[in-house]
Amino acid sequence: MKTNEKLCPFCKKENLCQAHIKNSTCWCFDIKVPKELIALIPQNLQMKSCICKNCIEAFKENKEKFIEEINPYK
pTM for the complete prediction? Predict the structure, then answer.
């Protein structure tokens, strides 16, 4: 499966990550991504693109609902 580094691996929308830009102050530097959320991504696709802020917050708010409704890897 091919990944697009600009798209969230869950919702497939733009992740708006700017970590690749030199001297960036991307939002992703200041948010903790739960290890349980990362573990939902197949290992060969992990660390290929950033999870978007909306998916991180949705997972933190209601993990079970996120897994049931949003997770394309189930």
Answer: 0.85
